[in-house]
Every structure is written in C-alpha cells, then in structure tokens.
Amino acid sequence: MKIVLCGPPNTGKSCLREGLKQAIRDTPNAPYPYIITACPDGEGAWFQETVRRSSEDARRLKDDYKKALDGFSPEFIKRIADEIKNCNLPITLIDIGGKPDEKNKEICRHATHAIILFNEINKIYVWQQFCKELGIKIIAEICSDYYGLEDSGEVKDGIFKGTIHHLERGEDVSQRYSVAALANFLLTNREINMTTYNINIENDKKGDTVLRLSFGKSALNDQIVRDAIKRLDELNIGGGNLVKLNGPASLPVGIAIAHHIMHKFSYIGVYDPKLDKYVIVVAHGPEHKIGALID
C-alpha cells in the first residue's frame, strides 16, 4: 500500500503520520510503516520526535533542511515521484503538501490509497476529486478538530470515517482512538491488503490516458486477472482516442486488460523499456498502425 496523507494545510497531517507510524509499530508482527516526506517544508520523518526532545533544535534543523530542499523544484518532484514508484514495502505513508495542484499530482501518480484529513467539510471535496483523477482509492476521511476533547470513528462502505482531536506537534497521538482504530483498519482490512494488482490512471503531458500497472500481493494469474479487472471496473474509465499501458504485467493480465478497454479507445500503446517508446498493439483508425512507436 502506498498511502497518501492529504488534505488542506494546518490540519495536522504530519502529526497523524507520526501517530500512525507509532501505532503500527506497536502492533505485534505488523510490517514496518515506511515514511516518505513529499513536501519540502523541512518536516522530515525525524521532526516530530525532535520536537518532543527540543522544540528549538527542531525549528533550527527544519529551517536548515527547508533551505537545502529549495522548494517544489522539478528535481524534488521527480525524486519523490520515483521514490514512491519504486517503493515496494507493505505499508508506505506519503505526507504531501496542502494543495491539490499539478505538482502534488505528479508526486502522487504512483500512490494506491489515500487518507484525507480535513478541518472543514467543504474542504474535503477538492481532495476527493484529486484522488478520483489519479485513480487513488480513498480509505479514510477524518475531520481534524483541534479544540475537540475526544475522537470518534467507524467504517462506512469500506471507508474509515471519524474525527480526531487536538493534533499538536510533539505530542504522542498514537493511542488516540481514531489513530489506533485507523492503524488496525489498515492492518486487518482484507480488501486493502489482499490486492494482487494495482492500476492507477493519469494523463501525460500530451493529454493521453496512461494506466500505471504494478503487481501487489503475491498470487497466481487466476487471482491477479480477477483483481485487475475489478480495479478497472472501479476506475470506470470513460474512454478516448489513445490509452497507454505502462508497467509490469503477465501475459494473461495484459490480455485481460487490453480486452477490457480495447472498445473504449481507438488505440492502445504498451510501453517497451528497451525502446523507451510505446508500441501500438490495438488500432481502430488510420492515425497509428499496429507496431508503430510513439512517445
């Protein structure tokens, strides 16, 4: 699972990230929760613990680190996007910035799931759309109530929904009800943890539809094919002129995906890393021929 922690600024995403990390680590036999800090605000995975020890040292180190990062530079965006793409650990938490802009879309294009943390209900919709456009499945929607006195939470239609109170830097929130319940939900939810194949949707610089493919939990092809088609049904792809498939696939999975989408698009291209091009494998028009190479 590559889980994006997203939502508007100043909601406590970094505090929730640290609390989830500790709650998962405190669970016997749980996989290690890997953290990717995808916002150049200087608050790396070390920040919360440093605040607990010395707020002055934390502030100084944050300022130095932030200067070194040089903001959302193209180099920073590519580095983080590649790290997310290449990370194959069981649970990865990705802490992004508070704007649903193109920079964060580029960073999150290889994520698989999302937790939305918000402080006003009208601010959740833009993040729901953000996830929809990237094909990221929302698994939790939590309201951050800084002045609240207690948490609440329950699972509705496969999504953890609730509130969490007083997310404050330097405080251990791992035992808060919503944090502990969310950690348990991530570790025990069969639908989340039994996915054998991941498909995410995005648009490239030319505006073409790209399906990012990757294997999930180890399984045989009969199960992987079923999971791949189920994921395509969830994405509800509308169709268009050209769709590009990019990522690993077994022969049965590749054929199943192509058959499922071939009548929605005029052309299907499959990425070949040796050629560094897409090879046209399905053509329903005169624009491209079978075997043509495109960028």
How would you describe this protein?
The protein has two domains: 2-193, P-loop containing nucleotide triphosphate hydrolases (Rossmann fold); 197-294, Transcription Regulator spoIIAA. It is 36% helix and 28% strand. The mean pLDDT is 88. The protein contains ten helices and 13 strands. The chain has a seven-stranded mixed sheet, sandwiched between helices. A six-stranded mixed sheet has the order 8-9-10-11-12-13, with helices on one face. The radius of gyration is 20 Å and the shape is globular. By secondary structure, it is of the alpha/beta class.
Outline of the structure:
The chain is 36% helix and 28% strand.
Secondary structure elements and pairings:
Blueprint: E1 2-6, H1 13-25, E2 33-38, H2 47-53, H3 55-69, H4 74-86, E3 91-96, H5 102-108, E4 113-118, H6 125-134, E5 137-145, E6 152-156, E7 159-165, H7 177-188, H8 190-193, E8 197-203, E9 209-215, H9 221-235, E10 240-246, H10 251-261, E11 265-272, E12 277-283, E13 293-294
Parallel strand pairs: 1-3, 1-4, 2-3, 4-5, 5-7, 9-10, 10-11
Antiparallel strand pairs: 6-7, 8-9, 11-12, 12-13
Helix pairs in contact: 1-7, 2-3, 4-5, 9-10
